[in-house]
Amino acid sequence: MSTKRIVVIGGTAAGPKAASRAKRLDETAEVTLLQKASALSMASCGYPYYVAGEVKDRDMLLATPAGVVRDSAFFAGAKGIIAKVSTEVTGIDREAKTVAWKRVDTGETGLLPYDKLILCTGSVPKVPPIPGRELAGVTTLTSLEDADRLRELAATNKDEKTVIIGGGLIGMETCEALVAAGMDATVVEALPQTLSFLDPELALLVQNHATSKGAKIITGVGISSINGQDGKVTGVTLADGRELPCTLVIMAIGVAPNTGLAKAAGLALGPTGGIITDERMRTSDPDVYAAGDCVEVKNRLTGEPMLAPFGDLANLEGRVAGENAVLGDTATFPGTIGSGICKIFDFTAASTGLSEFRAKQAGFDVVTAINASPDKPGFMGAKPVVSKLIADAKTGRILGFACVGLGNVNRQAAEMAMAILGGLTVDDVAMADLPYAPPFSLAIDHAIATAHILQNKMRGLMRGQSSIVAKSRIDNGEHPYLLDVRGPKEFEEMRLGRGETLIPLGQLRKRLGELPADKQAPVITYCKVSMRGYEAQRVLEANGYDNVTVLEGGLVAWPFGLEQ
Amino acid sequence: MSTKRIVVIGGTAAGPKAASRAKRLDETAEVTLLQKASALSMASCGYPYYVAGEVKDRDMLLATPAGVVRDSAFFAGAKGIIAKVSTEVTGIDREAKTVAWKRVDTGETGLLPYDKLILCTGSVPKVPPIPGRELAGVTTLTSLEDADRLRELAATNKDEKTVIIGGGLIGMETCEALVAAGMDATVVEALPQTLSFLDPELALLVQNHATSKGAKIITGVGISSINGQDGKVTGVTLADGRELPCTLVIMAIGVAPNTGLAKAAGLALGPTGGIITDERMRTSDPDVYAAGDCVEVKNRLTGEPMLAPFGDLANLEGRVAGENAVLGDTATFPGTIGSGICKIFDFTAASTGLSEFRAKQAGFDVVTAINASPDKPGFMGAKPVVSKLIADAKTGRILGFACVGLGNVNRQAAEMAMAILGGLTVDDVAMADLPYAPPFSLAIDHAIATAHILQNKMRGLMRGQSSIVAKSRIDNGEHPYLLDVRGPKEFEEMRLGRGETLIPLGQLRKRLGELPADKQAPVITYCKVSMRGYEAQRVLEANGYDNVTVLEGGLVAWPFGLEQ
Question: Which terminus in chain B has less CB density within 10 A, N or C?
Fold first, then answer.
């Protein structure tokens, strides 16, 4: 067998993984990794923490767990891989099976032959055509150089004001990093909410928390221009005419697959703009694989192609591409369900599977439930979490789960991602056997309790609605009777402030006479988290009230402000 | 419809849950809860944290998340349930459908009729027939009164020595509680290891940690007697003749189902000694349900009945029993996979599904892998975790997962419990899409990486062995060539100390000449976690060495002491 020549383009996440896997599975292969930047294997997901100063040492973003920086010498020695940095690929000749490269420092050029090529060209930040985007002071946070620059700024220019355009994951993480570093940062998001992977009930809770920590957030309005003087940013003008003075603008609209090379080489791109591959990560050319942010992948829940530019998937895709390039299509990548998590100050926000919005968009008939609870028993120093469970109305199959809060969202989201991957139903999760001890979870795990709520809703035992639906019913003149069933002390500390009546659950059976005489009149019950609210609904229904609904998640999940 | 009378015996976990669920689903039912103890709904899993002083306020063990103590008045008012405490049930007449009760304080007696009865009589601590077990100073940690007594002792008698008989979950948690409270505590376990739900490689790591924190652990030897003077404990004598002076002995051998009432009433008990129920939690009498520690449940992996006295399952079983008692068998409890987690000082130890030992006992042909890694990227302040994955050799179906360490074991165990419940295979987990961001996990989640290792082993790409197998090969004169492929600095700080050779991975390809000339000679490779150890194995095999194996988990998973 002659030596197989594997060329990998791109050295951030998918590329090094593909190259390493290929070499491990075929020590005789000649594996070459070409990287345009000067660094390799950058932990780009760590940039916000580096900007915030939480990651002290820049090298840690580039190092193995043993502390060795992953440079060309490391790849040569430890991995047996030829890694060429500062080397841009300028073209691919699929006939001749060569790539043309150019040193960005010296200008040197050359051709490199391959037997199998793996494209891991990543993504590029989207920069919308806003006037002024060319001004000095307009940047992104997508490269290590960006991160260096922002870290420097955050450390030295604390008085400057920053506007972040885009309230997605990167925008919110960047905002947190700057505020944590002591800067003044405003997120401007054109959509009505930030973090569009979350349904609004949960996104609003995250926004409230970010705002309470000093972040400024403006939603529902775009940017009409970035303004400047002497070539430097002085502010932005919003579509509604408002002016925000600032000296730094960070574009965080999102990223687009970097497909210039693939397109020029005539490889098929998909409807999302990403490179099309099959399950083996093989492009339209059987000798060319692709992995990472530059490809589109299958959403396992909808079957539709989507872009999923996440570091974890890049690694898995790279592992598959690297293996198949040397062993000949023995591995498959099954696609994504769309799982993400982020830290926003003391909050964690996570989502796996489809949001209600996206599930409906994909044509599912869905049922949902919202649950608020502590993350573990009160005696263990619990913190609240709020989650939303989305399931298929017909089969009960879990389609999505989102969770936010100060508590342990991480466990909840990870376990529910596995539940979705396993095709579990609401009934399955309702009876799941998870590890329990007081330091780690509630005896009835939060997500299991969320499944109990949804199961109760699906069976008509509980009638609930989200904060958003409840608010619109209150605002739109339906005049529901708002029944708070907490204790008087709880009520004194904090309440809805919308004309509610307090009847503690423990007195409800005796005080039914205080409710509206008309048993068809709408009643909304709730408590702190609406467990007691649900019990109140059951009591009222048993007593003939038949228009009773529960405010799901209670006051903990109410994002519209409480009266104190 | 006449009022349905539901009687629930037992008021700790399953009982209150069953009663509450029954009342919520049928407000017209008359639900009576009979409890022998004076307290209700005790968070018994919290006792160790209460003894340690971590839980300050005793009422928190008895309170709702809103801080209301769950006493009889609470049950009457909020739940509509008649809860009678200090009321022992002395007999069940299944013909007459009555239970006979007796007030433990006043001696008053009476009969209570039922339409449906739910037995939640819990468990009793096992007390083996060791001479001296009747001495003052011999106790258990199974009731709130036990917890009160131990907390008092731990607070006031710090100089006393304690011996804990039994190194299971409760024994180790109790030991931690006492050591954390500043006492001298020794666990004596007759088996060769503590925490028998873990395979020994992982149990030894936990023991090492506990010992480093001041716990004393003696394994592989039983207690022959508890000794005393004037009716009070003065020490214990071990089976090997050793004497341990102490003034307190805590029996933590485990618990047995409390089935006296059920047995006397002629209900069927199973081979494990627990009450037999069907999936609906119905006993051999269709009008009697049972839930919680007193029942035996189906192990979903082996199909065999087992005892699973855990608070989370008690709640789920109680929920099913309570529903079925009023609605007529609409709910089912599918059984357990055996999931548990515990905190041992700064370590967390968790297991879900079967250990290798138990899987083999159940007749499975298993494959396993051990993985050690940080729990998140190094730049985020990572802590190590070590896991073991057990799968069916034929189908690749995950049978078990255990994880221990200073890092985030909780997420790993919860997600893998769901993976087992979903019937996922090693290949499925290897390509799982889990939420990732640097504060929460590695880009390739630890459990996914463990699946990668097992996948590599199943495909013959990686040849590994556990620390225990490697140690026995070293000890038994096989003289394997021990190849440490870390860096010189790492080697200097800490090493195996068994005659190993250091050749850093980066130099291995050039220094093959230093290896044994006989390419059939046994070589064991490793590094800190054995990722590089695996790469070394691949390099050596590609160069003709064909008896190379990897020490799985590397030095991090080596529980037999390292040379510093």
Answer: N
Residue A516 falls within a domain, yes or no?
yes
Same domain, A233 and A155: yes
Same-domain check for residues B220 and B282: no
Q: Which of B354, B464, B349, B467 is nearest to B412 (CA)?
A: B349
Give the pairing of strands B548-551 and B523-526.
parallel
Cβ neighbourhood burial of B517 (10 Å; 0-12, 13-18, 19+): exposed
**β B138-139/B248-251 pair status:** parallel
Q: What is the mean pLDDT of residues A253-279?
A: 97
pLDDT tens profile A234-247: 999 999 999 999 99
Of A229, A253, A277, which residue constitutes the final position of a domain? A253
Report yes or no on A185 lying in a domain: yes
DSSP B506-557: HHHTT-GGGS-S-TTS-EEEE-SSSHHHHHHHHHHHHTT--SEEEETTGGGG
Residue B341 lies in a domain: no
Structure tokens belonging to residue A276? 């099309």
Q: Across chain A, what does the average pLDDT equal?
A: 95
Helix, strand, coil content of chain B in percent (nearest 5):
30, 30, 40
CA distance A29 to A25: 9
Does B130 fall in a domain?
no
The structure tokens listed for B149 are 């007594």
Residue that is last in its domain, among B458, B483, B503:
B458
Cα-atom radius of gyration of chain B, to the nearest Å?
27
Q: Which residues of B are catalytic?
A: 45
pLDDT digits (tens, 9 = 90+) for B303-312: 999 999 999 9
The owner of tokens 């078990």 is B400
Assess whether B365 and B220 both reside in one domain. Answer: no
Question: Are A116 and A174 part of one and the same domain?
Answer: no
Task: Say if residue B242 is in the same domain as residue B386.
Answer: no
Residue A135 has, within 13 A of its CA and on its CB side, a CA count of 25
Q: Which pTM was predicted?
A: 0.97
Domain encompassing residue B542: 464-557
> Do residue B421 and residue A424 have CB atoms under 8 angstroms apart?
yes
First to last CA, chain B: 77
A473 — contact with chain B (CB < 8 Å)? no
pLDDT value for A227: 97
Q: Which of A331, A337, A281 is nearest to A308 (CA)?
A: A337
Q: How many domains does chain A have?
A: 4
Facing A437 at nearest CB: one of B55, B341, B490: B341
Question: Which of B43, B78, B334 is nearest residue A506 as measured by Cβ atoms?
Answer: B78
Tokens coding B15: 């009982």
DSSP letter (8 states) at residue B280: T
The CATH number for A511's domain is 3.40.250.10
- Give residue-wise pLDDT tens across range A141-174: 888 888 998 888 888 877 889 999 999 998 999 9
Q: Does A537 touch chain B (CB under 8 A)?
A: no
Using the beta-carbon criterion (under 8 Å), do A66 and B528 form an inter-chain contact?
A: yes
Max Cα-Cα span within chain A: 90
SS (H, E, C) A321-376: HHHHHHHCCCCCCCCECCEEEEEECCEEEEEEECCHHHHHHCCCCEEEEEEEEECC
| Shared-domain flag, residues B152 and B231 | yes
A7 C-beta neighbours (distance < 10 Å), count? 27
Question: Is B452 found in the same domain as B393?
Answer: yes
Report, in this order, helix, strand and coil percent for chain A, each rounded to 5: 30, 30, 40
| Phi, psi angles (nearest 5°) of residue A110 | -175, 175
A357 and A442 in a single domain? The answer is: yes
Strand partners, A341: A350
CATH number of the domain residue A17 falls in: 3.50.50.60
- pLDDT score of B66 more than 80: no
CATH number of the domain to which A413 belongs:
3.30.390.30
Judged by DSSP in three states, B443 sits in coil
